[in-house]
Amino acid sequence: MDVACLMKLVLMLWITLITSIKSDPSDEACLTHLNKSLQDPNKSLENWNEATFSKPCNESTSTLKGILCNNGRIYKLSLNNLSLRGTISPFLSNCTNLQTLDLSSNFITGPIPPELQSLVNLAVLNLSSNRLEGEIPPQLTLCAYLNIIDFHDNLLTGPIPQQLGLLVRLSAFDVSNNKLSGPIPASLSNRSSPNLPRFNASSFEGNKDLYGYPLPPLRTKGLSIMAIVLIGVGSGLASLIISFTGVCIWLKVTDRKVALEEGKVSHLMPDY
Ligand SMILES: *[C@@H]1O[C@H](CO)[C@@H](O)[C@H](O)[C@H]1NC(C)=O
Ligand SMILES: *[C@@H]1O[C@H](CO)[C@@H](O)[C@H](O)[C@H]1NC(C)=O
Ligand SMILES: *[C@@H]1O[C@H](CO)[C@@H](O)[C@H](O)[C@H]1NC(C)=O
Ligand SMILES: *[C@@H]1O[C@H](CO)[C@@H](O)[C@H](O)[C@H]1NC(C)=O
Ligand SMILES: *[C@@H]1O[C@H](CO)[C@@H](O)[C@H](O)[C@H]1NC(C)=O
Ligand SMILES: *[C@@H]1O[C@H](CO)[C@@H](O)[C@H](O)[C@H]1NC(C)=O
Ligand SMILES: *[C@@H]1O[C@H](CO)[C@@H](O)[C@H](O)[C@H]1NC(C)=O
Ligand SMILES: *[C@@H]1O[C@H](CO)[C@@H](O)[C@H](O)[C@H]1NC(C)=O
């Protein structure tokens, strides 16, 4: 084998190695699934197609709208205010180098996938102003670098996971205007470490059943006792009415039966 041939072989191996590093199968899976779970009626993402998903990044640039790359991997996904519909694919977790995920101001429905927990580099999670439902996944606590959690203006239900208070880098937290319930965790509103920011009422307001500092305490007991009494009296009355009607119907039916029987008997009896 001559030297030139050997050089060629090495070069070829080198090139295959480089390209195999550059086209990342995780990012491709991430984009392919996201493209399937979202709908884009305004055609805002017109250059999003299967062909480009296999190689979304050229070093630090991307031709795909809303995507920024670093070292051949997607690190920022900003698809805000594009009238997108559909749901958030759990396979977004395949974009393992993601630092920013901004899907704010769209019409996205469905839950926040707990699978996002594997985005260990995530610093910004802005899903505000959508129609997201379900509970806030406590697993998000595993995204230890989270700086920003913005879920305001959605339809989220259930409690605020108190584990989120473990996110020591959190500088912005907004869950206002949802349908959350339960006590506000002191781990967010009254954090024990003086270096950590405490989130004030503006982070929590607009949730009918959320209570406790910095919002007002749980509604007074007087009201709930009143409600219990009213419910008791109401159901008592209802069962009385139901049983009365029952008795009336029974009486009527037996009356009619008796009348019928008597009629039959008188019919069978010969007239003398
Ligand atoms: C994508 O993520 C899923 C579930 O987390 C995993 O099973 C799959 O192997 C990942 N695919 C790639 C190409 O990384
Ligand atoms: C997904 O890709 C198809 C074409 O491959 C395109 O028509 C569709 O609009 C894409 N969806 C999104 C959300 O970009
Ligand atoms: C990658 O981008 C550089 C400039 O940023 C360009 O010169 C090069 O042709 C691009 N490569 C591909 C494969 O698109
Ligand atoms: C959202 O997009 C619409 C239409 O392109 C535009 O009129 C509006 O100003 C945008 N809103 C924000 C907050 O960027
Ligand atoms: C999408 O289209 C609708 C109506 O066709 C329009 O009202 C809206 O502003 C558009 N959104 C964006 C972000 O361009
Ligand atoms: C999240 O996105 C919305 C609009 O898309 C923006 O107004 C808001 O400031 C962002 N949240 C944070 C904490 O940056
Ligand atoms: C905040 O925490 C401190 C110490 O744990 C406690 O004494 C204080 O009552 C709390 N404040 C509120 C408003 O809950
Ligand atoms: C609540 O905190 C935000 C920043 O997180 C600040 O802009 C706002 O002024 C604060 N509101 C009050 C009433 O302290």
From TrEMBL:
The keyword Cytoplasm is annotated on this UniProt entry: no
Signal peptide: 1-23
Membrane-spanning segments: 225-251
Species assigned in the record: Medicago truncatula (Barrel medic)
Record protein name field: Leucine-rich receptor-like kinase family protein
UniProt-annotated location(s): Membrane; Secreted, Cell wall
BP term (GO), one: defense response
GO molecular function terms noted in the UniProt entry: kinase activity
A GO cellular-component term linked to this record: membrane
Membrane-related topology note: Peripheral membrane protein; Single-pass type I membrane protein
Record's keyword annotation contains Secreted: yes
InterPro entries: Leu-rich_rpt, Leu-rich_rpt_4, LRR_dom_sf
UniProt keyword annotations, A-Z: Cell wall, Disulfide bond, Glycoprotein, Kinase, Leucine-rich repeat, Membrane, Plant defense, Receptor, Repeat, Secreted, Signal, Transferase, Transmembrane, Transmembrane helix
Pfam families from the UniProt entry: LRR_1, LRR_4
Family: Belongs to the polygalacturonase-inhibiting protein family.
